[in-house]
Amino acid sequence: MHNKEEIVKAARTLLTPVVEAQQLELYDVEFLQEYGRKILRLYIEKEGGVTLDDCERVNYAVEPVLDANDPVPGAYVLEVSSPGIERKLVKDAHYAKNIGAEVEVKLSKPYERQKKFLGTLFSLEEDAVVITNEKGEKLQLPRENLLHCRLVYSSAHEEINHG
To answer: Which pTM does this prediction carry?
Structure first.
């Protein structure tokens, strides 16, 4: 199992119940190589935000499971983190929770001669992420070409939500 997608899928399957047992959500899993080292990065989430203590707890909980099942070939670094304020939307539930939020969408193939879009998340359809652009037009961006959909931090949103 050396394929990046297989490693991510195996890690997600193995670790979801372990993270949930810590009263947290496994938000996302990434496997990447940076500066010649392999990194398995877990993003965890909970209502009210993630603390450093949560990250340490999850790290200790998942290490023995990873060691026993060995989804990553060779040596690697395990990182546990919060998805952050400009997080990627990964699961359908993440999209549903963020309808009306400002997003950046990147596609692998151009849609109307563009690969990058900024707008307001309108809905998630079976085959498309639907956003409204600054002109108020609805764009149906094909899910099959989706590289990522990420929340865009805006101080205006901060004031609306917390001010």
So the answer is: 0.80
